[in-house]
Amino acid sequence: MPGSDPAHWLDAALHGEADVEAVRRAALGCQACDLWKRGTQTVFGEGPARPRLLLVGEQPGDKEDESGRPFVGPAGRLLDAALERARIPRGDVWVTNAVKHFKWKARGKRRLHEKPSPNEVRACQPWLAAEIALLAPDLVVCLGATAAQSLLGPRFRVTAQRGRLLSAPLAPRVLATVHPSSLLRAPDAETRARELDRFVADLAQAAALLERG
Ligand code: URA
């Protein structure tokens, strides 16, 4: 849709010619890849005007696509519980996704998540870049490989570099950890509890870094 070209809005954001609300409104009409044809709506990030912490997920899921808000489904509930254990109020955090439309395939009446392609991640990246540039958080935490690769490059591996403080062209301080849905897929309760503890520890590390300034 004219007026919703992500590169134009990133440029405007970088030159102080657009604020987050203007970028959010523009992203609602984004057709930079084909995902808009299947998704109900663009799911833009949300949070306070001056967040110190910005969390990036992969893409909206079924519930997020319906509601238009990030991380409100099962993965969101797990994220909320982990944030609470790490003593990070969700209301203090900007929560967003690397890809802003839901990619899915039909299985009967259900809509099953499909991983976005590198091209889809690339097409959406200017929206994420604009959010980060305008909000200027002190720390970005990538939840899972799609978010981490969007900011840190396609060779980034969460398993190898999880919890390391890194620097990306878009964000001077970045940490990567797993995506909360990977915990939902754990093979048994014991593994899930152990992986949840590790995820909480990564979030607590983020909180400690922010505390240190
Ligand atoms: N998974 C994500 O990566 N983001 C959401 O908003 C919901 C589920």
What is this structure's SSE topology?
Blueprint: H1 6-14, H2 20-27, E1 53-57, H3 62-67, H4 74-85, E2 93-97, E3 104-107, E4 110-113, H5 118-135, E5 139-143, H6 145-152, H7 158-161, E6 174-177, H8 180-184, H9 189-212
Parallel strand pairs: 1-2, 1-5, 5-6
Antiparallel strand pairs: 3-4
The chain binds uracil.
Residues 57-61, 64, 70-71, 73, 75-76, 97, 181 line the site of uracil (URA).
Outline of the structure:
This protein has helices spanning 6-14, 20-27, 62-67, 74-85, 118-135, 145-152, 158-161, 180-184, 189-212; strands at 53-57, 93-97, 104-107, 110-113, 139-143, 174-177. It is of the alpha/beta class.
Walkthrough of the structure:
With 213 residues, this protein is an alpha/beta fold. It contains 9 helices and 6 strands, in the order H-H-E-H-H-E-E-E-H-E-H-H-E-H-H. The chain has one domain: 3-Layer(aba) Sandwich (Uracil-DNA Glycosylase, subunit E). The strands form 2 sheets. The protein has a 4-stranded parallel sheet, sandwiched between helices. The chain has a two-stranded antiparallel sheet with strand order 3-4. Helix 1 runs antiparallel to helix 2 and helix 2 runs antiparallel to helix 5. It starts with 5 loop residues before the first helix and ends with a helix. Bound molecules: uracil. Uracil binds next to helix 4.
